[in-house]
Design a protein that fits this description.
350 residues; alpha+beta; Triger factor/SurA peptide-binding fold; Chitinase A, domain 3; 2 domains; 4-stranded antiparallel β-sheet; 3-stranded antiparallel β-sheet; 11 helices; 46% helix; elongated
Length: 350
Amino acid sequence: MRRNIGLIALLLTVALPIRAQDTEALPSHQTHPATSSGGLVALAKPVARVNGAVLTQGDLLREMYAIFPYARQHNGTFPTALEPDIRQGALKMIEFEELVYQEAKRRQMRVSPVRLTQAEKQFRKQFGTEQEFRQFLQVENSNSDMVLREKIGRSLLIEDLLKTEVTDKSQVSLAEVRSFYVKNLEKFKLPESYDLQTITIMPPVRASRQQPNPPAPTPEQSKEMRIRAEDALRQAKVTKSFEDFGLLAEKISEDDYRVMMGHHKNVDAKDLPPEVLQAAAKLQFGQISDLIQAEGAYTIIRLNAHTPARTQSFDEVSQALRDQMRQQKSERLRRELDANLRRSAKIEEL
């Protein structure tokens, strides 16, 4: 129930990809070209009835594409593992939309002719040419401006009721945000972190390297690794910038971060090996460590930033927190509205 319902989303869309297995034959005024055979396919097969109102396969498919738009790029095909959940989610959404529309009608809500005309003009702007619009009108709306106008009016009524029952009631005051912040200060504590670049010299490549517990390097291998590490340190010490150190890391480092110029962004202090953390704590911005022996390798670090542990201020988080609280409240109200409307409705899934 998280997708926003907008005017365009509630209307039939252009270039809807349809799979032949989803359709049956329809009269010519209700057809859409099939993407596979080029024949005519049906979108009118009922999938549900909501208090007697019929929801069709076309309604369901359009909602499925709204949930998973990438299917449009694959001839209307959904991932096999995901399709049942996508279909079920789409079915619940179109049922919800119909329930909201019926509730708006029950309350005798109205859309003014002026607003309806403005919405119709806005909708038509999505078409590149008048010919495209007329083709859409013929295929999806029985070549009737009145049918399209009725669908736009339906969409606007749904939007209006959701605004009344969800959007307007989802507002969160600054006082509410501040109260949540004060009561949940732990959520806004940032851990101590380091922004580092590394050059790492690993033990010599051995056939046993892929083993879960490879044997320790021999004395000769350890000596050779130390020589390579000291050479790397000499080169690192003469670098003058992030770029210089990064280019050297790309060239000689033997860990996976070499492809990112050796850059580790904002690593929590608790996640660093103790030997690396101890060395990093002694460095100033831009300084380069001596050799650090940790976890069976030699590492050289460059300190780019050190951020002490702190609590974010209310001003820092207030806007994002307010948006999050508003979103959570909106989702809760939508779920409650859906449950309330379903409680007295007769819904048949076919």
